[in-house]
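Repro:
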Amino acid sequence: HKMLEIGMIVDLTHSTPATRKQVYAINQQRAQEGKNPLRPLTFSHCGAQQLFEKYQEKTGVKKYNNHKYYAASEEDILEIEACNGVIGIIIENWWLTGVDPRLPEYQGWELSGIDCVMETIYSINEQTTKKDFSIISIGTDFDGFTDTPQDLYLYEHFGKLLERMRSERFHCKGTGR
């Protein structure tokens, strides 16, 4: 309540689906009561549940199913869009796809980080109502703890991601950037 009252942006990364629903409800209630407009909320670094589920089907591995709940669901995406928040795409294959080639059940599943990031961008955008990429950002989580993809483990690699985004004419329709 206090964070929303003072205008602090609430980061829902690492929160449970139940916690997220509570935060959405508090934000909506405050706006309905006229205390403030909907405050922007964020996921600073995550993936999309839709893709996690897609790759579970592709690989046939479902024992890590609970991990998908750390990614944004369609409900989360719509809530973030409604409050003019932002979702930062994490640069880490596991949290984007649920595939980790270091685990025995995923041997031979080496994925391109750039491909996974682009797939996540498009997946999240398709789940929005505006479909204008306006709630999407990059939230690396480059803290030395994550297992970053081979093609995106250094900041210098981001030029390749930017080239890919430009070549696909990826930009926010609202700003043109």
